[in-house]
Every structure is written in structure tokens, then in C-alpha cells.
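Give me the fold.
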Amino acid sequence: MKLKKKIAAFLLIPMILSGCAQDASNKDSEKFVIGISQMMEHPALDASRQGFIDGLKELGVEVEYIDQNAQGDTNNALMIAQKFVRDDVDLIFAIATPPAQAAKQSIKGTDIPMLFTAVADPVFSQLVPDFNDTKENITGTSNAAPIKENLELFKALKEDIKNIGIIYSIGETNSESQVKRSTEIAKEIGLNIETVGITSVNDIPQAIDTISKKVEGIYLVTDNMVASSIPLVATLCIEKGLLTVAADASQVQGGILLARGISYHELGKETAIMAKQILVDKKDISEIPVRTLDKLTKKVNVKTMEALGLSKDLKVFEGAEFIEQ
């Protein structure tokens, strides 16, 4: 009998080990449902989205995505967020300020976490009380630009420059915050900021025509409406002989002269790390502060540079990547 029991126990070992292995396998292959809400299509937001997807894939996280685009409409962003809540997704990934604000409103009273990205000032936009205060099941990554350093690029391009223009979307808190900060910082370095608000991309030609009579350059804050029409903005500014500097490095490929900013693909990947911490590692969001990227890239559009009569030898272009587009 003792021998039979030993044999039976021995035979059970592979079954127990197999069961454990199966449980571990199921745990490792757990699949999560993430709802993506993107404000609109343009290079920066597209890169953030792709970086997030690439990042989770590299981290080995199995995800089913429900991918939605608000097409620039805040009402759509709210409906998308509400649908995600009804579908009881595991996490909402909101790209840009309006989708993030819509998601914050929609997840109240639920346990669905929300991550945002491509939000310049999440405090001003009332997404979080502070970068380190993420107790409302909300955190993410900010694309905050080094405003002072970017404005100083204008002086490096033209030493006696005085007036800079900003075109921005009225009602987009992300943009309003940057305009306010830019205006304050510009005074510190001897520049004056002129602003023109727009309500649609159709306003851009008139806005540039109007502001070009008062300024020598245009500073492009990270505004979604303006970002969706960068080739148009760049062409009109070249025609007016205006220097252009962007907070988003990807806009150089659309014809903007110079940019010093973050990689939105890397920003998305950074947000993916946070998603893994929440979904897989079960880390509480209150322990995950809002993050920014320290690494910046400088880019110059060669065709725009030549059209404006500038040379590659300018000191301001040192260390930059020259884009031949």
C-alpha cells in the first residue's frame, strides 16, 4: 500500500506542475482592453498613439484596443469616453486635453483608470491638482515645452527681433495656458507677444495675414487645431517672410523652420510603461506621478531655411537634425 501511494504521488507531480505552469501561462497571457480616445489626426498625436502601442508590445503586454478618434469635436470625445465606461474597459488612454477632460468626467464613480498624454499643462486643465497628486485614478505624461528656451531661439535667429505672434484655438485650455506662460516669459527676455485666436482651421489664412503686419516670427505652441494644418501655416509664413519656431519637433517636417521639443513617440512609450504598472503590476495610480520627458531634439527644415535666406552655418542650428523636406 505504501508503495502504491508513493507511485500515485509520483504520478501526480507532473499534473500539479502542469497545472501550475498553466496558471502561470494564463497569468502571463492575460489580455487587457484599452480604449484609445484621440482628439484628431496630426503627426504629434499619431506618434503618441503609436509609441503607446509599440511600448506595450515591447513590454509584452497583451492588449485589445478600441481605437476611436474624436475628429476635433469635444462632443465626440465625451461620447467616446462614455462608451468606454459602458464597455467597462480596463483602461482609457486619452490623447490630448479635450479627450482627457471628457474621460475624467466619464470615469467618476467607476474604478476605470485613465492615462493621458500630449497635455501641456494637466494642472491648468484640471486633470490633476498637482503632478504628484494622482489620487483620482488619473495620471499620464505631459508634453510641456521649454518655453523660454524656444522663445530665445528667435533672438538667436535674428538678434534685434521684438515681436512674436502666436495663433491658437480659442477654448482649448492646453493652448490658453501656453499663451499665458509665453506672454509672461517673453517680457523677461525682451520680446512682445501678439496673439490671434481661431475657432476653425478656416480662420488660419486670415489670422496669419492679420498678425504678419505686427510680428517678425510665429511661435507654434502645441495647439491641436493649428497642428492639424502645419503645411498650410508653414507655406503662409514663408510667403510673409516670417520666422517660425515650434514646440513640437515633428512640425519641422511640415515646413516649420526650427523646433526644439520632445519625441511624441517616446512620450507614448513612457505612458505605456505607466499602463503596464497599472494593469500588470497592479500598482496604485496614486503612486505614479505625472511624467515629462527631459530629452529634447532640435530640427531644421532646409527648404524653409533657404526660402528665408538663412544659412546652415548659423550658430542656432548647431547640433540640429536637418530635414530635407
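Confidence is low (pLDDT under 50) at residues 1-28.
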